[in-house]
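Possible regression after last week's pipeline update?

I re-ran a chain I had predicted before the update to compare outputs. Posting the input and the new output here so someone can diff against the archived version. Not blocking, just want to make sure nothing changed silently.
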Amino acid sequence: MRHITIAIDGPAGAGKSTIAKMVSRKLGILYVDTGAMYRAVALYCLDHNIDYKDRQTVEKNVDDILIDLLYQDANQRVILNGEDVTERIRTQEVAKGASAVGALKSVRDKLLHIQKQLGAEHSVVMDGRDIGTHVLPQATTKIFLTASVEERAKRRCQELTNKGIKNDFNWILQEIQERDENDSTREHAPLRKAEDAVEIDTTGISLEEVVKKIIDLLP
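New output (post-update):
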């Protein structure tokens, strides 16, 4: 099979992870959730009582953070300093911290090496905020997923409700708006659409339709 790299970027709640997983299964290639790596860094900070907004302290500890990705039955597992934290990184607090640590160059540089290596060694579908612009600038296909902020907040609320977690639409809406601002204005590798990426607005479109659009774009 030829080497394929699909870069999927977009803001929080646009459906990147769900769609990337579906595409990877359809094509039988590796799925890499880069956001999970930043969440792992944020979890490390929370577990060690480090303020993830404190740039100097985070950067001082970054060399002690060891992250590995394992694949079991084609599912990605996130290993933080020897512990499987795949489920623990999916809280709102960790998500908020991931946006903060993702703005730090030392953190991005550390994780960039892992991400580039995966893309070089395997056919992958990789999703995040800067895949097409920074991590895999030579990707076979680049996609920029988006949706209205209200739609993204609605999806996040539904996701939490399905997990039995209480939530508030207005609070989540505000949080997503703040994450959009942080991601798009950060100094290092900000969220933006690559010039050669195809933009797909997922508002009101089924997951299957989006997956088909992406696969149809493959050369």
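Follow-up from reviewer: compared with the archived run. The chain has one domain: 5-211. Marking as no regression found.
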